[in-house]
């Protein structure tokens, strides 16, 4: 009983203590100043931007290929014979000038053929001269024999008149008639000889033409015994040596021209479309001028780089069905004359090079850096300095930028720095990237 009373009194005594503590805490809070309210400030993110430029855009496309000579010349033996002379520098890789004597085939047989043909010509010409004299003599003889025949015929007529009057015998008249017949046969023989002379002359003239042809052929074959270089060239192959025998038709030397080098390069069809501008009239006889393409050929080897001006000459007649590319040919003139030791080498066969094609300028085109494109969108800083995502209608891509059809206007601030995360409406502090802006402006040059 006493224990229960003691416990009750302890509980009652706790209540005043708690009340006193609450009162003290209340007065302490009343004496303090209220906490200071800190205003909320939205974070700002610094970004690099460029103002969208409007430029006269020169479309460009890159292609790659191996250097090939414009002309490959094969010296084919047109006659058979032993090689009696060879150019001392006729070796692979050597550059020789136009007109240089490379090889000489033994000309003896062909010189003899010329002499024989000349003799045949002289013989036939002599026969023609003889026939001419024969014709003159035959005509003269025929004229005389006709006069003799006329006299004999008159004598026969006289003998017949005398026979009628029985002044002469029949034998005398018959004898004179036989004389007339013999003379008539003589005249006819001469006439036949004269009639055959034109045919004989035609035969001799035909033989003369054949002999002249044989002489011309022999002279041509003699010329073919000497093989000269038709243009300045670099020797690619030598397949014969001095004192060796060559058959007609054998390839003796292969040489590559050095005045013009060509680059057959492959370019994607979608890139070709952007290089060309629509035209209502196309002159198919002058396609390089119609296309209006200019070209630069570059050689890159590590840190070394050099380039040559090129010109578009032609395109292939078909598209590669596997790669969907078209082959174009770019020509570089006089690369050997432009060569500078240690600075610019000549363009050598099978050298791998880069080709940059440039089309006619497209006026008033909007461009943005390729790195600023995010899934066909760009991030721009709007007038409230906030992030806005803008969908683009892209015309075509270039190496480091894109040409835009719709979605932007000149002067829009496009973000070019990496922005992660990119939240629509976030507050931004734009800083113009002057270096990239200058780079974009160079595109129109």
From TrEMBL:
One of its GO terms (molecular function) is efflux transmembrane transporter activity. The chain crosses the membrane at residues 12-28. Gene3D superfamilies: 2.40.30.170, 2.40.420.20, 2.40.50.100, Helix hairpin bin. Residues 114-228 form a coiled coil. InterPro entries: MdtA-like_C (IPR058627). Residues 375-419 form the Multidrug resistance protein MdtA-like C-terminal permuted SH3 domain. Keywords: Coiled coil, Membrane, Transmembrane, Transmembrane helix. It comes from the Bacteria. GO terms for cellular component: efflux pump complex. This is RND family efflux transporter MFP subunit.
